Amino acid sequence: MENTEESATLRITPTVRALSSALRGKRDDVPESSQLNGDRVFPEPEKLWFKESSAKNLRNRDFLSPTTMLNTLYADGQIPPAVMSRVLSLRGSGILPVAGGEVMGEGLRVRVDRAAAFKAVLAEGATEYLKPSGQRQGCVVLNCPALHPKPNTPTPETLTLGQLRTVLLADHMGALLRRQGFAVSYCPTLPEDSDIFTFLRALGIDWPTAPPNWTNEEREEKIQEALENSPYRERETERGRRTSGGGGGGGGGRKAEEGENEEALRVNLKRVFQEEGLLGYDPSLGTCTVHRDSVSHLAQMDLATADSMATALHVTSCQDEFRQQQIAVLWRASGAANTQRHLVCGPVKTPGSHLTAAQFLQLRRGQMKEASEMKYGDQVEGQTWDDIIRVMTSATIRFELLSTVHTSPVTLDVQREGGVSTKGPRGGVFVMYNCARLHTLFDSYERGVEKGLYPEIPECSQLDFSALKEEGEWLLLFNYLITFSELLDQSGQALDCEGGGARVNIKTEQICKFLVSLSKDFSSYYNRVHVLGEPLPHLFNQMFCRLHLLRALRELYHSALDTLNLPPIRQL
């Protein structure tokens, strides 16, 4: 599914791999005493080196091979000169250039040629670092059971916070997968005049719609017929031999459905997943009575996958997981051969109260407006501020529901006096505020250019990046700009994994955590460093190097926020 071209773009993973290869060396580089030790176990290459990330450790090293690893490779941890020479002279496509290294108490430290790395990354605006390392091929349908009619189309007043979490996660996953090259579609299609569509639009979610009078009856009839003719359909004689303990249409209603009239269409789901070799499905899935809303759900899936053998990724809450497993196995019983995976979200808890999705949005929007008025006063009025509050509210809700590992519960503060603040290093407001600070910085610079205070920013090739000596500058490049493309790769890689059952676990929280961490480190740097200095020629080189770095950082914010379908706030 992957089509990756070799690139000179600097990456962490190839660098660690090359360092590991250089350190392991050829066996003739190892002293004879080490070779004769038959008990020596050589570690896996990816465990030999660690990328440093803390500001404290980055003061003296960028990569570390711990003493325990060196002792495993070489007797008494003594690195042969030939091996050390190979490590220190490491060069190659995509590999961070090594400036030096030394063995200390904690292990072998390696330092990167930082000036060369700054120049290489910031050339061409760091565009290669803002996209996945490779483009993938394939089609994915993101199915959100919370939005399917049961039998009526859900409304903002009936949508639970747990279901809202699944919708936001599906929206985020779609943006991530598109960035990697996948063709992405969403299921189900919503009526364009529905309240739920308007609600989703208020959160920045662009879900597919159909005209109000549109129907999918032809596909529903096709699915109904396929299930009636399915080899897994339970005939009357088979039902008569069974007890009432089989699986049903959902949760506690299963036994009751066994008592329905004998003409009801029933499918033996257990036979389906056993005979089709489907792994990871609940063993209590038994006989399922097929209801109209199930047929409607399957017809929507059939429509979404009509033109491709797309992978179906069902994004569902833990409360609805059993029901969605029934739907998935029913789809297989109808003849669908698509790969199906389940991304299951933990519950959303609101201690002391119970809110619907509509009430939660109303609460957060009101809190955001109040917080903005307290900070900015009477200027908070008009369409511009309405748009800002809408985006900031969406950012707040997305970060609250997406910053936690998707299988874990989320606990929300929904007290009227809490939940939203324009201050403090947490959540979407903090991220959007720091993105806006970068826009303000460049607006100030452009005004300085117009006044003749500063010249235009020269190309990277004309600058000496050894002027970037402040520890926060290297931290921003090394921990964020260089690592972002590999972060984008992870969701597609998780879908590629074969086996392991119906569930798929994807690190969906990482973009939000990345942005919050980036904002903390940028804010700390920006509060310490005066970027736009006096308009004196001898200060321009350092100022322009910093502006190149911060311009790339601004684009990094845009790229990461885009995966959350959040437009940047350019002024606060």
From TrEMBL:
Listed Gly residues bias regions: 243-253
DALR anticodon binding domain ranges (all copies): 431-572
Cross-referenced Pfam families: DALR_1
Gene3D superfamilies on file: Isoleucyl-tRNA Synthetase, Domain 1
GO terms of molecular function: arginine-tRNA ligase activity; ATP binding; tRNA binding
Span list, region Disordered: 212-261
Source organism superkingdom: Eukaryota
InterPro entries: DALR_anticod-bd, DALRD3, tRNAsynth_Ia_anticodon-bd
Biased composition (Basic and acidic residues): 216-241
GO biological process, one term: arginyl-tRNA aminoacylation
Annotated PANTHER family: DALR ANTICODON-BINDING DOMAIN-CONTAINING PROTEIN 3, DALRD3 PROTEIN
Listed name of the protein: DALR anticodon binding domain containing 3
Lineage: Eukaryota, Metazoa, Chordata, Craniata, Vertebrata
